[in-house]
Write a structure and sequence with these properties.
Elements lengths: L2 E10 L2 E11 L4 E5 L6 H9 L6 E6 L2 E2 L5 H6 L2 E4 L11 H15 L14 H13 L16 H14 L4 E5 L7 H16 L3 E5 L3 H7 L2 E6 L2 E6 L1 H5 L2 H8 L7
Parallel strand pairs: 3-8, 3-9, 6-7, 7-8
Antiparallel strand pairs: 1-2, 1-4, 4-5, 9-10
Length: about 250
C-alpha cells in the first residue's frame, strides 16, 4: 500500500468531524472519496496531506508513519496536492510558475539547477517547464502571459502543472473540476485520464459522479465523517446506504 490510514479522527472545537476513518490506497490506482456536502471530505484531505494534524489514528505513506508531519514535509516525501481554489503565483508568467516548482524539486533533491529563475534558468529547467505546460494544453504563445489573467479552468490546469513539476508519487486532487464550465470539465477529465494511464497514484474528491465513475478504480463514501461504503464503483453505486444518502433521506452536516 502506498497510503494506509487507520482510525483517523479530528475535531473542530467540540464538533468531531472525522470518526475513525480507515482507508488503504494501492500504488497506481485511482481512489475517490465522495459524500454529500459537509461529509468531511475536505477535512480528510487536509489530514491526509498534513494541512491539519489528526487528533487520533495513524497515517502511513510508503510504510513510514507521517501522522505528525507537516504538509511541506509530506510534499517532500512525494505527496502532491491541488486545491478547490487553485494556488498559483498570479504575478508570475505561466512558464515561471512551473520553473519555480522544477527548481524547488531539484534543489531539495541535491541537484544544482543553476541561478534562481529570476536571473537565468538553466536550459534544461526551462525545457522541462515548457514540456509540462505543452502537455497540459498551454500553447507556447501563452507561456509569457501573467497567471493572474487566466480563466478559472486554466488556473486549475496551471496548478496541476506546478504540482506535477515536483514529480510526486501520489497526486491528491481536491475537487479538480470545481467551478469549471462543461467544456473545461471535459478537458480536465481527459487530462486526468491521461495521467491515470501513466500509472501515477491518484486520490481525489469530486462532486461530479460521471467523472468519478469514469476515473475511479475504487471509491469510499463518507457521511457525517464516517465511512459508509467502500469498493469498486459499481458495487458502491448499488449500496442501499449510499443510495439513501444521495437520495436525501438522511440528514447531512451543515
Amino acid at each position: 500500500m502506498i497510503l494506509d490510514v487507520q482510525g483517523v479522527e479530528t475535531s473542530y472545537g467540540a464538533m468531531k468531524v472525522l470518526h475513525g476513518v480507515d482507508l488503504q490506497v494501492k500504488e497506481g490506482e485511482t481512489f475517490a472519496i465522495i459524500g454529500p456536502n459537509g461529509a468531511g471530505k475536505s477535512t480528510l484531505f487536509k489530514v491526509l496531506t498534513g494541512e491539519r494534524i489528526a487528533s487520533a489514528g495513524t497515517i502511513h505513506y510508503r510504510g513510514e508513519d507521517v501522522t505528525k508531519l507537516s504538509a511541506f514535509k509530506r510534499a517532500r516525501k512525494g505527496m502532491g496536492r491541488t486545491f478547490q481554489v487553485a494556488r498559483i503565483f498570479p504575478e508570475l508568467d505561466l512558464e515561471t510558475n512551473v520553473i519555480v516548482a522544477v527548481e524547488s524539486r531539484m534543489r531539495y533533491s541535491g541537484q544544482k539547477p543553476g541561478p534562481w529563475w529570476r536571473w537565468r534558468p538553466k536550459p534544461e529547467v526551462a525545457a522541462e517547464a515548457r514540456e509540462i505546460l505543452e502537455r497540459f494544453g498551454f500553447a507556447a504563445s501563452r507561456w509569457t502571459d501573467e497567471a493572474k489573467y487566466l480563466s478559472h479552468g486554466d488556473r486549475k490546469r496551471l496548478e496541476l502543472c506546478i504540482t506535477l513539476a515536483a514529480r510526486p508519487d501520489i497526486l491528491m486532487l481536491d475537487e479538480p473540476t470545481a467551478g469549471m464550465s462543461p467544456s473545461d470539465r471535459k478537458e480536465m477529465t481527459q487530462l486526468l485520464m491521461t495521467l491515470k494511464a501513466t500509472g501515477i497514484t491518484i486520490v481525489m474528491t469530486e462532486h461530479d459522479m460521471d467523472i468519478i465513475f469514469e476515473l475511479a478504480d475504487r471509491l469510499m463514501v463518507l457521511n457525517f465523517g464516517e465511512v459508509i461504503a467502500m469498493g469498486d464503483p459499481h458495487a458502491v453505486r448499488g449500496d442501499p446506504m449510499v443510495r439513501k444518502v444521495y437520495l436525501g433521506h438522511g440528514q447531512q452536516h451543515a
